[in-house]
Amino acid sequence: MKGGLNYNETKFVDTNVKKLVDLITNLNLTVPPHQRDYSWEREEIEEFLDDVDYLMSQDFNSIEALPHFLGAFVFIENNEDKSYEIIDGQQRITTTMLYFNAIRLLAKKYIKGEDISTILARCHEYIYKSRPGQEVKLRLKLGRADDFFNKLLKADKIEDISKIFNSLSKKRDVDIKLYNAFEIIYSHIESNIKDDLVSKKLLKYIEAVQTMMVAIEIVVQQPGIAYIIFETLNARGKELSAANLIKNELLKYAEKQNSFDNVLNIWSMMVEEITQYEKADITDFLINSYWSNFKYIPQTSLFSGVKELLEEITAKEYAETIENDYLNYTKIAGFNKSVDSKFSKKVISTLEDLNDFLNIRRIYPLLLAGAYKLDNNDFEKLVIKSVNFAFRYKTVLNKSADTLVKLSSNLAIKLRKNEITLNEIYEIFRKEASDSDFKTAFTDFRPGTNKLGFYVIRKIEDYLSQGQGVKVLDQSPNQHLEHILPKRPTQIDWPNIFNGDEIDDRFNIYVNKIGNLTVLEKDINQYIKNKSFSFKNSNDEKKDYQHSVLKLPKKIQNYLVDNKWNFESIDKRGEDLAKLAVDVWAL
Questions:
Q1: Can you spell out the DSSP letters for 422-489?
Q2: How far apart are CA 362 and CA 426, in angstroms?
Q3: Which of 1, 40, 142, 261 is the most exposed place for a label (fewest CB within 10 A)?
């Protein structure tokens, strides 16, 4: 390492502040097999993409442009092969590699008849350590997931990605997470380049990360030191660090304004309440409360936002907004599931759907405002319609988390100021996620996970079974999500979806469409497995669709085309489910 500390003298640590891309390209990186696998879910990936989108809005050459700080990355240097073992930073580095790979494949897909060499060269530099024309070698060895990761980042075109994934004989959880992460990143960037000059926009996506993302590189030689640093960075106190900056600034103003004891008491009660829940994050509460009370700002600007705010209002006034919101936050975010007059049984169950199945947190600002301003009946209606809207807008229509939180913040602030009525809010919901747009998108909707698929089918099944005593149990071990056309069909049982010995190219798209999904009892699901449709629908053991106690399985046979379950059947059933969905997720 150049600069920093001299290992021979200290034997401890060498630290440098670097651009993320310099960190990636200057080190030969490995993830040890014993380290936890790649684990980022949609929420973390979308936060990464939100940060990129914020950077995209800046002029990179302006002296006012602010870099995005990614935190510390900890490595152990291996003197034998000059590699660097990642102790802390795997998730961020892996996601960045997937990001550049998405740009590479988008360039290959959309840029025709013009020179794309600049884009491909930059992506090549950040993904591969080999030069163009040489045997392709990745800059990152990803432990147990290295084989699939290699194939993913060496794919020649986007169509190869799903083929590579589906060719895996056994899909491990880490393979699924890597595949889903790439799909989320690819879809996000693709949705933002269709109506623009593609090459110019893709270059800007590269430059946003290349120019504006920085990190602290910490390199050690002794594993013990590395893990001490890792544990220190990832201790519970890390979650409090950003919050403590705000606390210190707040108390500084409070002392000048003779409200120190009052403000400190409010802050201490908030910390005590939120930190009793293992997964609760004080900074997450503070940003959602800020969005709900004041205005939208990027999450990374929370400290500067509060600092500016304290020039406009007193410390006591700001502390009172915290006091008004923190107990409601623990309920809305799903940490405290106790029922009371405000948070009825229906409200709590609806919030469980929001947090446990949909994982959409960007609607929190509006719900915080509603919990503070509305009576119990109106709040219950707002929660139900807000969750329905979030499902339509974010999950099915695939609108960005950034636009959702801006809308949620705007409506929340107006609601607190009595500048908007509930009916006006619901009218905005109906405009932003109209029945027609929702129905069209739902027809072809593909839930990204079995958990989400189970939620969607469960909601429709419950709607059809109202008042009849039949209820689908959430994530019950006795009820499973069923793919009518199975994920692993055999040519013997499903000849109509094969072209010769090859499965139809449409299979990968259709198998996860909503029209191909239902919920079944465990014993039926395990018995019929990947069998033919006729066996799934009716068999001598009466473990079939027709003998399910649920509504949807019995109706599947109505969609056969020429007595076969095929792609047209999936489309037709998807259309009918979409008609039901408009009422199930009513606005």
A1: HHHHHHHHHHHT-HHHHHHHHHT---SSHHHHHHHHHHHHHHHTTTTT--PPTT-TTEEEEESS-SS-
A2: 17
A3: 261
